[in-house]
Amino acid sequence: MLDAKIPAGNLDQKWTWYKGHCNLVNPANKRKLEVIVIGTGLAGASAAASLGELGYKVKAFCFQDSPRRAHSIAAQGGINAAKNYQNDGDSVFRLFYDTIKGGDYRAREGNVHRLAEVSGNIIDQCVAQGVPFAREYGGLLSNRSFGGTQVQRTFYAAGQTGQQLLIGAYQSLERQIALGNVKMYNRHEMLEIVMIDGKARGIIARDLVTGKLERHFGHAVLLCSGGYGNVFYLSTNAMGSNVTAAWKAHRKGAYFANPCFTQIHPTCIPVSGDHQSKLTLMSESLRNDGRIWVPKKQNDERKAADIPEDERDYYLERRYPAFGNLVPRDVASRAAKERCDAGYGVGTSKQAVYLDYANAIQRYGEIEVNKQGLSNVSAEEIIKLGKAVVKEKYGNLFDMYEKITGENPYETPMRIYPAVHYTMGGLWVDYELMTTIPGLYCLGEANFSDHGANRLGASALMQGLADGYFVIPYTIGNYLAKDIATKSIPTDHPAFEQAEKEVSDRINRLMSIKGSKTVESFHKRLGKIMWDKCGMARNAKGLQEAVAEIQQLKKEFWSDVRIPGAINEMNPELDKANRVADFLELGELMCLDALNRNESCGGHFREESQTEDGEAKRDDENFKYVAAWEFQGEHKWQMHKEDLIFEIAKPTQRSYK
């Protein structure tokens, strides 16, 4: 059994106790210690800035041309925090409980409670940085609702919260770069972990402009490289998002936990054709005021405006009256799929449902009439006033939808359908965020620790910033305090030479194949296998078929892929080939993990395990554990278990009715 190193004592005192008893590194010694940070999204940028501020010598790497290109920038709807500004019953405990329940009781209590505890500090930190959160009329920070909760705890900056938070972390990072505490390596991709005496002691990185391989030493390495949703090819992730950094660590001995736990987001713009290379998210915040429905008549060809109210099925409100349109993402996604599969879908593909703002526009318009003391107001004027309010709250999201679809969502309901969005699985880490490799840490979406089998909306930004600003500065010191006598290891050490040779040999092997099929074609084929057989619904037969198909696809990839260009130059196709090769191996493990977990929980829905009304049916007796997989060679993994112990949030059948 794996040891998560969770402190003893009462749940609400564990983190306080840890901070009071962990080892510290004095300022003079911090200046002698080097830390490598891979990825500069919210987790990476906040970690690099915080560690630089503390005095460590930090080297930060990102494969984009600037940290501001990190995929964190794409987050739209908001960030959770238990401030209880609304005075609606929120608390640290309620945020903790909602997160455990929302994750279908497959997350670790200790980590989740710590996340809830530090959530308020994140808002204070970001306000101090100048993040322009939305504010109420009186100047107080505004909150809105998100799925899986009955309180308003989501702070937001219109529909671009991720961008604004990333700018805050980025400016903190740039300050440390200017002070010389952080050295930034843009357009560099980590391709290997360097191990010396059983510890992570550096990386091999490739300069993506020149193609040159570089060696970098670090007393510790932090992986903040995001999730692996692009294994499905079509997802809401940036096209560059990949699993390579985490996968290289996995092959070196870091266990990969719960890889089958992927999140399907219910409000995305539907697929429009085979030409697409990614999908577009419409923020979950739209479920605050939007109502989701389908026609009551199967295969209804009428336009939305021509379908009268009594012929519309507001199926989430009907099935889940307590939460309505604000059920968690996994529940909303499966419900949309069920309606479409049953023949009630809309649009040309019939793989979509409506997200309608007509009621909200009418309601806000009537409120404005009262606020402004108007009388004898026409219906048209009420609608105009209501649209103005909606535009202020969600305008950039509506504009984005119109640009992509050519339809005006103020006049016509949006068409939405679930799509791959976030990954709850990732590298296994203990309470200190350390992987099974000493000295190798993993933060943010790249680790598995906080969201169980389903992430609540607006919690990704919370975890990334919590890990970087408030957790890793304590936990890394507990490790490095014992390493202050270790001098910087020269990069001509045999371990660096061997690691670089492994990377070089792999690249040369890829380039020597000279086959007939593009990297993109293999990625597309992998994505179709994953979506069809390890997507929104899974069953034993399909997963067994998927494993065999992926193994065959991998064999074909390594014998028939065609990569143009050369090694020692800027070569995006070579970069992509490296990443797709890792996705092929990850896809196989995801299907094995899904096959092994013969229960339904959160985003992992096994068709063999469901309640009478089609909800996920957990098997706590046999599967109340984290599945952490150890790489043992080609197509071989060994599973290790971390038992999940629930002392406070006792597992029950989730109900949002």
Structural topology:
Elements: H1 14-21, H2 27-30, E1 34-38, H3 42-54, E2 57-61, E3 79-80, H4 92-102, H5 109-129, E4 154-155, H6 161-179, E5 182-185, E6 188-196, E7 199-207, E8 213-217, E9 220-223, H7 244-251, E10 256-257, E11 262-268, E12 291-295, E13 312-313, H8 315-319, H9 329-344, E14 353-356, H10 358-372, H11 379-405, E15 414-423, E16 426-427, E17 440-442, H12 460-480, H13 494-513, H14 519-534, H15 540-560, H16 572-596, H17 620-623, E18 625-633, E19 636-643
Parallel strand pairs: 1-2, 1-9, 2-5, 9-17
Antiparallel strand pairs: 3-4, 6-7, 7-8, 10-16, 10-18, 11-15, 12-13, 12-14, 14-15, 18-19
What does this structure look like?
This protein is of the alpha+beta class and 657 residues long. The protein contains 17 helices and 19 strands. The protein has helices at residues 14-21, 27-30, 42-54, 92-102, 109-129, 161-179, 244-251, 315-319, 329-344, 358-372, 379-405, 460-480, 494-513, 519-534, 540-560, 572-596, 620-623; strands at residues 34-38, 57-61, 79-80, 154-155, 182-185, 188-196, 199-207, 213-217, 220-223, 256-257, 262-268, 291-295, 312-313, 353-356, 414-423, 426-427, 440-442, 625-633, 636-643. A 5-stranded parallel sheet has the order 5-2-1-9-17, sandwiched between helices. Helix 3 runs parallel beside helix 6 (161-179), helix 4 (92-102) packs across helix 5 and helix 14 runs antiparallel to helix 15 (540-560). It is globular.
